[in-house]
Amino acid sequence: MRQIVGKTLRPNRQDPNNNLQYRRQSDSNRLNVLKISIVLIIAIGIVVVTLFLTTSYGFNSGSDEGSIDDPVRNTSLRPLGSGGSTDSNFLTKSSDSSDSSNSGDSSNSGDSSNSGDSGSQSGVTSGQNSSSSGTDSGSSTGQSGNQTGNEQIVTANSEPESTGDTILSGCTIHGRVTDDWGAAMVGVRVYASTLEGTVINSVSDSRGRYTIPGSSPDIASIGIALTHINDFGESFSVMNGSDVISLSIGIDPEVTSCEINFDSWNVQSEMIAAPVDSSLWPDATSIYQYTLNAEALAINLGADLENATMLQVQAWCDDPILGCDTSADGAYFIAENEIEENSPPIIAMLPQRSSANSPGIPDNREYHEYGHYFLSLQTGDNFELPAGDTNHGGYYENSSTRDSFVEGFAEFYSMMVSRHIDDDSNSEIYTMGADYDLEADRLPWEAEGWWEEFTVAGLLLDLVDDDSDYAVDPDSLTGVNILDVATDSEASGTIITGSIINTSPLVVRNADVTVRYLNDAGEVVGTQITRVLPEVIAPTRKGTFYAAPPAGLEVSQATATLGGIAKSDDEDVSIDLLQIMSIITEYERPDEEGRLGVSTVAELHDALMNSERAQQFNSAS
Prior knowledge:
11-stranded mixed β-sheet, Immunoglobulin-like, 3-stranded mixed β-sheet
């Protein structure tokens, strides 16, 4: 299975009320108009035929009302992506569960017993997959690869052999799983449930394709669960409470086509998400894709995911046990066994933070939190803070630099995912509301200690980068103009904001702006490349950019030009990323016997200068 995932475009983070992706908007509209036209033509034809038969053969519909079925009245036609309800309660826990609210209540979790409805599904629950008749437990958070009862585990990614147009003909069910941008979703669990309760599992391949081999007319439903399955089993699941987030559709063998696509951009109204509302499905697939990118770097760095407990990514988290306060906003990592013995590693995202429009994603969400997971996985430590210390407080407020190192490492890991997996030419830009250039040296006491973690992240970046990482000089964009640039002084430092407008007739993607910081005399004292948000800007639409200069610069104003500029690395040190990761994760703490992993800035210095691993690398080089 492909381990390196290609770059996934970040969604529009600036306009949560108008989250339209322009990729297929016009095509979708034309498709709906075509469908409506076809339905009207069929309806008119039926009326004409009925009138003709009545006139020609003397049928008296008035004397025997209802003797002739009205095909229009008895046909349910729903436009694609219109939402709405369906008669089938697939992937629901009870007859009234079509509400699909974001319930974090775990009291009904793991209950995959037969509801008595043939072919119904009780959601995607934790524990082993149930084999109860008529029940599909979706995706399991227990051991992967287990076969229980009637469940069949099938590898099914060969080309489909279709023998007809509908499932009744005995064709092979096949299709494609894509995210909100049309990109393939790799390694997603696909499952089909028969009327007898047999569950057939498949996995999407590197192009998002899947097949259900041995398909038969008794298939009752088919769905996908946001559990990633690779060569050694299940590595992570996107969940809400005890359930893996899933999307399913009921099957009518006489009507349903052999090709069933799960397109996150245009979710069919007959498809039902669980346990969250179907409108949140595109956001959930975004979380899956970004987590997969973060995992790809971990695999490249030698993480032992095969023997690791499966990571839970808790989206729309509202479980107090996980510390989820729904009135707040944020995401955080909980190490394995931290809640209680045998509790899994968790990345928790509060409801507001789970949106695809949440600022700073994926840098400051999936990539950052996975960095915490990687450090914990490689060292077996949860890096708890000393008593009285506060998160993001820095040595300015805390008794040690542990928090600054752990948070700085997560930000460094995020940049490495952007560089090595996303192939981002501006990976040194860390986005969390504003864009922070971590190649620019940050002072530890900036923002009352908060930016100390940026100092650590920038230091780690300095150890692995070189001139080639900053040599990209994109061409200026035609038909895009800068509207304004403003300098705002805040308690945490100076923030530069600005906007651009797309005056061209074409969609603009991935625009960059170079910001130049000026002092009172109008002299340039620093430069920074920053990204424009959103990454896709339609004609006549505006974009926004943010930049945060180092506090040591005396900035009174700023200018901006479209496009990036080539620059050189600000130091001559360059160490292989794998070597740095080995030095950090294999370091034996001198004051904490048996505990591995650098946990403070002082330990980082000691590891780089004196550790056995560092000396081995120094000798080899």
